[in-house]
Every structure is written in C-alpha cells, then in structure tokens.
Design a protein that fits this description.
66 residues, mainly beta, 3 strands, 17% strand
C-alpha cells in the first residue's frame, strides 16, 4: 500500500480548499493543532471547526480534485 492510499477502506484521501483564503485541509494529514487526527475524513471534522487562516466554517470549503 502506498502512502497515498487510505487505510480506512473508504476510498482515496481527499483535500479541501477554503474558498476564501486558499488554506488546504488534507484528510491524510488531519490538523493535529486543532485536535483533528491524521486520517480524519472531512465529514468527520467537527461542525464547530473553522479555517485556521481566516475563520470561515466548513461550508466555505470545496473538495479539490487531484
């Protein structure tokens, strides 16, 4: 298994970009600084979470096709 393949069996890891400031959330990396463990799927990121750069909500993120 390569490092880009998920270990959770839910398909490939995805990335999400903030449409306001361009910050990228990578499911494989998570965001441990806010308590979001590596491997946390976007749908499993808490609804209260906001962009660490500009403070917008999850609704202001779009999935990035790779």
């Amino acid at each position: 298994m390569s490092s880009s393949e998920p270990s959770d069996g839910r398909g490939p890891w995805r990335t999400w970009v903030c449409v306001v400031c361009g910050w990228i959330y990578d499911e494989a990396a998570g965001f441990p600084q806010d308590g979001i463990a590596p491997g946390t799927r976007w749908e499993d990121v808490p609804d209260w979470w906001t962009c660490p750069e500009c403070g917008v909500t999850k609704a202001d993120f779009d999935m990035v096709e790779v």
